[in-house]
Amino acid sequence: MSQGRIPEEVIDAVLQRHDIADVVGRYVNLVKQGQSLKGLCPFHSEKTPSFYVLPEKRIYKCFGCGAGGTVIRFLMEIESIPFPEAITRLAVEANMPVTWEAGPAELTEEQRDNNVLVDAHEFAAKLYHYILLSTSEGTPAMEYLRGRGFTAEMIETFRIGYAPKSRDKLSQLLSGRNFDLELVAKGGLLIARNEGEEYIDRFRDRVMFPISDAKGKVIAFAGRAFGDVQPKYLNSPETPLFHKSNNLYNLDLAKPAIRKTQQLVLFEGYVDTIKAWNAGVTNGVATMGTALTNEHAVAIKRLAEQVIVCYDGDNAGQNAAYKSIPILEKAGCQVNVAMLPDGLDPDEYIAKQGAQAFVRHIIEAAVPSMKYKLLYIRRNFRLQEDDGKLRYIHAALNLIAEIPLPTEREHYVRELSGEFGYSYDVLKQELNQYRQKMRIFADNGDNNDIPWNNVMNESGKAESASPLHPAHYNAEIRLLDAMMHDKDVAKYVEEKLGEHFLDDVHAALAAYLYAYYASGNEPNLSKYISTLQDDRLERAATAISMTESFRGANAQAIDDYIKVIIRRDRQATLETKKQEWMQAERSGDALRAAQILQEMITLEKQLSPLLNKKQGSGEEGVE
């Protein structure tokens, strides 16, 4: 159930009574550097220190993986504990009496319903687990699991259970505990019959694998038949709790290992993930009943820099692996692909070759994404024939041309040259022709997101490593930085701009700032960050607070930043209106087209003074 809010004065006292350097120093060997302390980041693997603690600001920041926040966030991440537990631990250490009570939190109807559904899923998980372990009904399922190589530890760790054959066992028990069966049916555990007069269990006679959210709460199930029952696999449907496009199986258990290694292993299914965990791959997750999505990739990138795709070795699995590469790379992940022989899946390979061989010969031997793509496409050519060989080389050079780094391109061209005996210079010349064609397409508006040139500039940094942000994005950062350190600036921005920041994260940070100051608080960076209680927002606020060059902006600069944001907002609105006007024109709706045209004229009049007097200091980047 939900937990009441811990009083702000308690949070503030915890922050005041703890030296962040002392707490972090228990886990990280810190060395003084100027007014800060630095060390090797505990959240990802690195050889050169990029982790800094700033005692005066009471925050930490890693410039490698992006981790950052207050001492509370640090303890939550390093110990994998929730916010209330971190507060309690720190309070006890500071000899503070833990006297606050978890009063009733003000929840929306949706939040209350979701809490009920979580409770129902947790109850179902316990019921299925009990039936598997402690009843005769569960004996056949237990024998099936043992035959598949599941140990008692695996069954316990992943809370595996068994849904009995009875059509309404779970329904009856939930009803007896006063659960709203109509709501539970919306949550996917039950199915309504006879227009809601009867509710039966969705899962029957199946081995049950609970699916948890990132906090470890059960939100769905994967059911597997072990007899002749069809369908063989049955997962929970889309519900208010469970969204297949962004949920990852085992993320709650794998998160500590992922953050520590900055590496994530991506599997296709839950059985592969469990078997790999037992083999020592504790940073594995899986998509559930759907192909990898952009939402999955974004969630993965927040946790890890490198992804190893370990899909089944059959054609379907390898096709899925190939399709996953651009999705993950677009999100900014470094992608390697594990190669399973003889069409085996990870579960089968581990059973045949053992855990050690799986880790050493499959996971650790995963090949870079470009190497995999070259191996993947060569299956379509008859390399024993000259024509097939030439067509493969042309196709390979087309792929290699997409690589932004010159040294990496040279590596693969030399491999082609060595394997097939063609001159390196000739292959390079053809490669350059492909790249020239790609530049032409890019100049014409095609594929503009592909970074063609990632060579080092004179400063020794990759030019594409720090891309220019649009002017409005930089303006929002500068405003937020000033607002976090000046209450009057925040009040002024609230009057002029409100929550109309264009970036969602920036809008959320601004909203929290307004509420923070409205509660009577004074500027206090660590105290403000502690109110966010969201990893993504805390990282963003910490990063913004360290952009000291933006601080101390005068009144004119503040107005200029606001104008940049308003201008971009109205430009975006005008662009949308133009599309609507064109659509109305094409459909012959003259009245609607005239109305939209009048709106466009009004917007253009509002934009005119903003475009005629563009401010200077906030105009970095491109619009």
Summed up, what is this model?
With 623 residues, this protein is of the alpha+beta class. A hairpin with a 5-residue loop joins strand 4 and strand 5 (68-69). Helix 17 packs across helix 19, helix 18 (406-420) packs across helix 19 (424-443) and helix 20 (471-485) crosses helix 25 (555-587).
Molecular structure report:
The chain is α+β, with helices and mostly antiparallel strands. 53% of the residues lie in helices and 11% in strands. It is built from 26 helices and 17 strands. The strands form four sheets. It has a six-stranded mixed β-sheet, sandwiched between helices. A five-stranded antiparallel β-sheet has the order 1-2-3-4-5. A four-stranded antiparallel β-sheet has the order 6-9-10-11. Helix 23 (525-532) packs antiparallel against helix 24 (535-545). It is globular, with a radius of gyration of 28 Å. Residues 445-467 and 613-623 have low confidence and may be disordered.
